[in-house]
Please model this.
Amino acid sequence: MATVLHNLSSYDFNKVPDASNMCFGIVVAEWNENITGALLKGAVDTLIKNGALE
Model:
């Protein structure tokens, strides 16, 4: 897997750019709402945490 090449424990959240002047689109599959819904919520929460408007 691609994660073998990266140490995910060393991820620095402070290096995430400010998202307040950016536009985003999120596409979500409908095949398993329990999984895709949680992934969508995580993506939206992360964007908002980094300045994106809802």
Observations:
- The longest helix spans residues 33-49.
- The chain has a mean pLDDT of 87.
- DSSP finds one helix and no strands in the chain.
